[in-house]
Write a structure and sequence with these properties.
The complex is a heterodimer. By secondary structure, chain A is an alpha+beta fold. Helix content of chain A is 40%, strand content 23%. Helices cover 30% and strands 21% of the residues of chain B. The chains are: A alpha+beta, B alpha+beta. Chains A and B meet through helix 1 of A and helix 1 of B. Chain B: Pfam families: RNase_P_Rpp14.
Chain lengths: 164, 99
Amino acid sequence: SPRAVRRYVLCEVLSDDPRCRQCIEDRAVGLAVRDAIGRVHGDYGLACCSISFTVKYLNAYTGTVLLRCRKDSYRLLCSALPFVRYLESRAQRYPCALNTLHVGGTIRTCQKFLIQYNRRQLLMLLQNCTNEEERQCIRKSLLSCSLTEEQSQSGDEEDDDGIE
Amino acid sequence: RRELPDGGARPNASQFKQLVVSALGQLHGEVGAALPVDVLTYEEKTLSAILRVISSGLVKLWSALTLLGFYQNRRCAFRVLQTSPFLLALSGNSRELVL
């Protein structure tokens, strides 16, 4: 069927430099990813992955990035992500790495995964807490982690026809 | 076979190999440039060569050669005469057979 089937790649930005957070914005991340695809897979790979490529969601506080691409080219995209070495924004460049967390067929599956992942991260932070106040904050966040059914989904929902 | 329209300096065997690898690099990136390609024979006079590549890499190699347009800022073109899984088959071109 000619319907555009997409894949959503969830990744996180890891950096030693705390200033890298200010570069986590759609233009900077999109350019960095496309530049990496161009280096690793050439003109063909770049053109292939650019169809329907976009940065769908970003969270600068957690460093979470959700990318969208065609199902036919998600392997090209995923194999190029380790080659992103820095993010550049407003003439500032900071070294970083992209860690792939999950590949899904819909935004909803990536959202569900992210909620579970963030809950696990909060649990780990809870173990490393030094004072009671931090503990209370984290416990409160953990208890509010859930996917509520009345959240409206964006228009890009498609059937998940299995991840190869 | 390579076609160079003017009478400029012709590449030698290693420059030819470098050209093939850089064509792969332009179209298919680092992954393409890392594809193992061997130049089995090369004739500087006729600019003809026999290249060897793993069969899964044929499409990448052929497309990269087709889209290569320049050698040292001079226009050029690659023409693929024959492909075969067997080297012996390349000694004769069945298209030129006179029956």
